[in-house]
Design brief:
Layout lengths: L1 H11 L1 H14 L3 H4 L6 E3 L6 H15 L7 E2 L8 E2 L7 H10 L5 H28 L2 H12 L2 H4 L5 H4 L3 H15 L2 H13 L5 H22 L3 H26 L2 H9 L22 H8 L17 H13 L3 H17 L4 E4 L2 E7 L1 H8 L1 H4 L9 H20 L4 H19 L6 E3 L5 H7 L9 E4 L3 H14 L17 H5 L1 H7 L11 H13 L4 E5 L5 H5 L9 E2 L3 E5 L15 H10 L11 E6 L7 H12 L2 E6 L19 H5 L4 E6 L10 H8 L3 E8 L4 E6 L6 H4 L4 E5 L4 E10 L2 E10 L5 E9 L4 E8 L5 E7 L6 E11 L8 E3 L5 E2 L2 E9 L1
Parallel strand pairs: 7-8, 11-12, 11-13
Antiparallel strand pairs: 1-6, 2-3, 4-5, 8-10, 9-10, 13-15, 14-15, 16-17, 16-23, 17-18, 18-21, 19-20, 19-22, 22-25, 23-24
Helix pairs in contact: 2-6, 2-7, 4-5, 4-23, 5-6, 6-7, 6-10, 7-20, 7-21, 10-11, 10-12, 11-13, 16-20, 17-20
């Protein structure tokens, strides 16, 4: 009998079972096709967070096998481990994804899970809408508004946000229970609400707010009924039981709570009011709208997922204007408006322009209840609460419209409106195709004996990189030194920061084994070995790997392919071999090069190091380490690394000139001729000279050749002068070099400061005639820049010879700063001479 009833039910709703999957498949094409592609690792969304979604499903298998703990793991941040209490586990996705992987490849299972959960979300909306309207075709349209928009279909990498099926299901059972006075539906509603804590925290907050609105609405009518309050109490107990399981591990970690709440503090994204009216990703409508209206790019780099659709908005307006019983619409309108307004953030942003004085309710809520609302830095997550009440309002409008449509055309009208709405919501797929060759290093590791003892350190460190390494872990299971679960607590990095080598890598730098840090370097290596670490995997397709490579370049690689290099942790001490340390002669040159002179006056210095073969010597990197202590940024470079080259370096990726040289005042091309006999510096010099002025050789010896380049708006003489004019001021400021030039009617004064004053200061350029009388002066405020250029118009001066002097004075007090000239040691109390001026 039950089978027959089920068959009748399915037959009754066959239109939804056919139309909605077809709609989702078309809206997300080619995701469905890629399910059957077993050759490529193709994901439905190019988002690096997808890697951790794969990790979640893999970790669920460990949980079910009794090999892991739900709230803690030492597979990440080994050996100390990390709390997973704040990690965004989406249990339905984990369960379905892990189950499908038993019969499908990982990428196919990922895409199939996305389509299935999208359908379940729409189906949940359909169930409640069908209950509210008693019309399965209107419910179909409403389900498309609720479950076929960008909020659901464009977030394949964030099922904890996109899977909002528990919202309509919870409200459906809550509505049934409250309306009919039955306890069982309320218990089911409580279970769905509580279970949402294991799906997504943002969805849970929205659902709890909607629950409060429902209870307030019904309490106003049934406050005197004892049974009503008893049922609410029992439902609350069910919710509390689920929520306690999820939140208790968080609450016992106050530091973790503070860290989670601080993410995105003071920052809000995806909040532009125009987002409701423009689908910024639509390939057809967006260009048309941009051509017709002055629409700027808003919510930059943040996909618009809150577009409401013109057809649903018109239907909502029609319902509000023409409905005979508007009072029934008001609760839904109020509920939708609450979340639509919260999505706008703490202040109004319209068409890319912020209006901070137009304060919105979210600011007050964040101040009053920060534990609940502070985590909403991506405020589009509030849209989860707006979608269903908005869909209900659109269905009211559709029902009003259908009253003027004949019965024969009713079905056609609904299908056309549903299809047109889906078309409005369409967003092209930006897929990710992961090369299988990136996994070849895992096969090499799996061929090593004693698999249980392998522990990995992945380089480079970084939030995005660690998510990819989590994906790799699903293939090998090896513990590694870092990781990136959601809201990673700061304490997880304690072990990394305490280790001399890992701490440098975590800071995006590298360390070489030099006499001054040899003990720290060796101690760090011994700690890593004692804690079981066996291999260092350098993923060279990340551009940020160059700095970390400094620690490894002298080591022989145990494995190498197009994507990774693998080194043994036990080989790290090879960097400490005596022949890897710069000899005394070169060290002396280096001291001169980086010493008291003004050759490296600014922090914005890059050193481009040249290599002609696979061997990268420790001598060179010792040299660069000393340069780095002077403020230089060492950057290894080979000719094939130059932009436009065909093959990436075995250790560093292709280097973009703009990225390598951006923000620099000085560039040095350096190499050690003892190990670089075949180097032709011409390609490198041409590469740099396109943006910097060549200033000749700074060092030319048997052990070091260094060519100096300076930003083109400053003369080379500023740095290459034999006896530069400079001054040491009594307040600690140091003027490393200064030159004056006369060009036409202007006197140009160029400065380079070794050390700027700690407080705000100004300089006064003063011109005196041959009799010693001050004829002209011009003052300039010192900026936070070691290089400065000040220009004075000398047109008003009569022909003759003049003397130019300089005063440094405190901007606030006007007090002049005394000092002494560098070189001569001559003291001055106020001004000192900086040059002569001849006016014709």
């Amino acid at each position: 009998m039950r089978i027959k009833e089920l068959a009748d039910t399915l037959r009754h709703h066959l239109h939804f079972i056919v139309v909605m999957p077809l709609l989702i498949i078309l809206m997300t094409w080619p995701v469905f096709f890629q399910i059957f592609n077993s050759d490529d690792f193709w994901l439905a969304r190019q988002n690096i967070d997808s890697n951790m979604i794969v990790w979640d499903a893999w970790y669920l298998k460990l949980l079910l096998g009794g090999q892991a703990n739900f709230y803690y793991t030492d597979l990440l941040f080994h050996p100390t481990g990390v709390s997973l209490a704040f990690h965004n586990f989406c249990l339905p996705h984990m369960i379905v994804f892990a189950g499908l992987q038993t019969v499908l490849p990982a990428s196919s299972a990922f895409n199939a899970t996305f389509l299935l959960l999208s359908f379940l979300t729409a189906a949940a909306g359909y169930v409640y809408l069908n209950y509210l309207f008693g019309d399965k075709w209107i419910a179909l349209f409403g389900a498309a508004v609720f479950g076929a928009g960008s909020f659901v279909l464009s977030r394949q990498a964030h099922p904890n946000i996109a899977f909002i099926a528990t919202i309509p299901l919870s409200l459906y059972f809550l509505h049934c229970g409250l309306l009919e006075g039955r306890l069982k539906p309320l218990i089911v509603a409580g279970a769905f609400i509580g279970a949402t804590a294991f799906i997504g925290m943002y969805t849970l907050v929205c659902l709890l707010m909607m629950l409060a609105a429902y209870l307030l609405y019904f309490a106003c009518r049934r406050w005197a009924q004892r049974e009503f309050w008893l049922h609410i109490f029992l439902m609350t107990l069910v919710i509390g039981a689920f929520v306690a399981l999820r939140f208790y591990p968080m609450l016992v970690d106050p530091q973790g709570v503070a860290n989670a709440l601080s993410k995105g503090a003071g920052r809000e994204v995806a909040k532009d009011f125009l987002g409701y009216f423009v689908n910024t990703q639509h390939p057809i409508t967006q260009p048309i709208l941009t051509a017709l209206f002055p629409i700027k790019r808003f919510d930059l780099n943040w996909s618009n997922v809150v577009f409401l659709g013109y057809i649903p908005m018109l239907l909502v307006a029609w319902a509000l204007l023409r409905s005979e019983n508007r009072r029934r619409l008001l609760p839904w309108l109020a509920l939708a408006l609450v979340f639509l307004i919260l999505r706008l953030g703490s202040f109004l942003t319209l068409n890319g322009v912020d209006y901070p004085n137009f304060v919105l309710p979210l600011r007050t809520l964040k101040e009053a209840v920060p534990q609940l609302f502070q985590p909403f830095w991506a405020v589009d997550n509030f849209h989860a609460g707006a979608l269903f009440p908005f869909a209900v309002l659109a269905c009211y409008g559709l029902r009003q419209v259908l009253r003027s449509v004949s019965t024969r055309r009713r079905l056609v009208a609904i299908l056309i409106l549903t299809g047109a709405t889906a078309f409005e919501y369409f967003e092209p797929r930006v897929s990710e195709d992961f090369p299988a060759a990136r996994l070849e290093f895992i096969a090499w590791l799996q061929g090593k004996p004693d698999q249980d003892s392998i522990r990995l350190i992945h380089v480079p460190f970084g939030t995005q990189q660690q998510k990819v390494y989590g994906y790799y872990q699903t293939y090998n299971g090896y513990p590694h030194a870092a990781g990136r679960p959601t809201r990673t607590p700061e304490t997880a990095f304690d072990y990394i920061r305490s280790n001399f080598i890992l701490g440098a890598w975590n800071a995006g730098d590298g360390v070489a084994c030099l006499p001054g840090n040899r003990e720290d370097f060796v101690a760090a290596q011994e700690q890593l070995l004692a804690d079981g670490f066996t291999h260092i995997v350098v993923h060279r397709y990340w551009r940020s790997v160059a700095s970390e490579s400094k620690t490894l370049l002298y080591l022989p690689a145990a494995y190498e392919d197009d994507y990774v290099l693998i080194f043994r942790v036990e080989d790290l001490r090879l960097n400490c071999k005596s022949e890897a340390i710069l000899n005394a002669g070169a060290q002396s040159l280096l001291t001169t090069f980086t010493g008291a002179g003004a050759i490296l006056p600014a922090k914005r210095v890059s050193v481009l190091s040249l290599h002609d073969d696979e061997m990268t010597d420790g001598q060179l990197f010792s040299y660069y380490s000393a340069l780095a202590e002077s403020g230089a940024k060492p950057l290894p470079l080979r000719e094939e690394d130059l932009a436009g080259g065909q093959t990436p370096s075995p250790v560093v990726p292709l280097i973009d000139r703009g990225a390598a040289l951006a923000g620099n005042d000085i560039v040095l091309i350096a190499y050690d001729p003892r190990f670089s006999d075949t180097i032709d510096p011409a390609p490198y010099e041409d590469w740099v000279a396109r943006e910097f002025a060549p200033c000749g050789l700074a060092v030319d010896s048997d052990s070091a050749v260094v060519t100096l380049y300076l930003r083109p708006d400053f003369p080379c003489a500023l740095l290459t002068g034999v006896q530069p004019l400079g001054a040491q001021f009594d307040n600690g400021a140091r003027l490393g070099s200064l030159i004056t030039e006369t060009r036409g009617a202007f006197l140009d004064v160029y400065f380079v400061w070794d050390k700027l004053p700690a407080e705000n200061h100004s300089v006064s350029i003063q011109i005196f005639d041959s009799a010693g009388a001050k004829i002209h002066n011009q003052d300039f405020v010192l900026a936070d820049d070691a290089f400065a250029h000040h220009q004075t118009d000398v047109t008003p001066l009569a022909p003759g010879d003049y003397q130019v002097k300089l005063i440094l004075y405190n901007y606030a007090t006007g007090a002049s700063v005394p000092g002494e000239k560098i070189g001569s040691g001559a003291r001055f109390d106020r001004e000192f001479e900086i040059g002569d001026l001849a006016v014709d």
